[in-house]
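Thread: nicotinamide-adenine-dinucleotide complex, take 2
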Amino acid sequence: MVKICCIGAGYVGGPTMAVIALKCPSIEVAVVDISVARITAWNSDQLPIYEPGLDEVVKQCRGKNLFFSTNVEKHVSEADIIFVSVNTPTKTRGLGAGKAADLTYWESAARMIADVSKSDKIVVEKSTVPVKTAEAIEKILTHNSKGINYQILSNPEFLAEGTAIEDLFSPDRVLIGGRETPDGQRAIKALKDVYAHWVPEDRIICTNLWSAELSKLAANAFLAQRISSVNAMSALCEATGADVSQVSHAIGKDTRIGPKFLNSSVGFGGSCFQKDILNLVYICECNSLTEVANYWKQVIKVNDYQKSRFVNRVVSSMFNTVSGKKIAILGFAFKKDTGDTRETPAIDVCNGLLGDKAWLSIYDPQVTEDQIQRDLAMKKFDWDHPVHLQPMSPTSVKQVTVVWDAYEATKNAHGLCILTEWDEFKSLDFQRIFDNMQKPAFVFDGRNVVNADKLREIGFIVYSIGKPLDPWLKDMPAMA
Ligand code: NAD
Ligand code: UDX
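Output below.
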């Protein structure tokens, strides 16, 4: 029986390994982590992450050929294939701080593999890493090898949160990069055989190591670039009376452009886009490619601009001050169908409003109060360092309350901001909400989920990202 061990039981390691276990009953899969809390949750009825379809997959395999454990060394030493899916956050200090990937967790995993291995291993980079990381990992492993043969593969993960199980069941492609030596090719074949249990062969792409590593950063940069492009257009739409949804629809019909990923929003979030683009920028700078670095930097600048533009719009519409006013925040997760708040645009928007002394009442169907308070108290880039995965007493942000109901959040509020596109927000009773709000009552839709015309009929003043402006908003132009 082939044995797989995955180091890192997070958003990628957990679902990916659960699907491998489901699709490959002949393979034993162990997912290990240094976080006792995470492993305990994976072994309980309350999984540590919310992901549609995940519970069913885990329930079918856990205890049969899928195991979650903190006994990292045992499972690593027994495995034939070791996936490393630890976090690779942005460095917060030292050389490259604020841009470069922090490979501390990766390096410590590699050193541990070298320490405990007694047989040949295929080590698979599942984490997103800077191009050429495999070379560094290879050096750590071979310099400590005790005669063991290690083959390093790059197998970046392309799943998106909220649709992880769907993406894993039916991926657009699986990418495997390896050395062009006979041993390297054998290792590629071994990993390909795992995926071939359910992924059609023509969707499994094999490349050299550096192409695989770089393709992951490139894919995220291209996707984020599309969002910044459409968000840049949204500002122009508001200035000219064009409607960004109509523009997206019109350009998306061009098969060379395509319709996906053209939804204007309050900004992209999530643990990957910003981190990976910063990493790409840093790699370009290290290679003296200043113009290329500046090109990609702009994607993040536009994203930051979009978030601050939204805050400015809220404040300027409400007579240039939100001081002491209650504002309801509907949605805190970085997208719908996940409880993940990493780099969610809601953090920047809330902090912007808090900076103007607003009182916030926040509701998200999947995010806990503890998480929200912690996010609002945390410094930029600190969120992805394991110390923060442990429970800590949050510095409570006193201007913030977290409630479990959209009606409670909006009661007596002057305005409401929709920051995540949860489906349930579409079917709220807005007449009831309007009746219980201060007047004039404002809706700021950062995801274009509500029907603005219907809300205007009720009496709301509505701002929808990238849509023709309400006469009220035209009279109160937001400062850029
Ligand atoms: P995560 O923070 O959810 O999980 C990482 C886990 O690794 C944590 O539970 C942590 O405790 C554990 N860990 C860290 N060091 C360890 C060690 N030495 N030994 C054992 N466990 C250790 O992160 P994630 O979202 O799963 O992302 C993991 C990697 O995958 C990152 O490089 C990320 O960029 C990439 N990625 C993420 C996504 C996504 O949607 N989240 C998608 C594609 C790729
Ligand atoms: C992303 C990539 O899509 C995935 O391939 C990679 O493996 C990890 O990073 P994820 O961050 O989970 O996945 O979600 P994604 O659906 O890409 O959304 C990222 C952000 O962009 C979210 O905040 C989302 O709301 C926003 N977004 C997405 C838009 O604002 N407009 C869009 O049209 C699409």
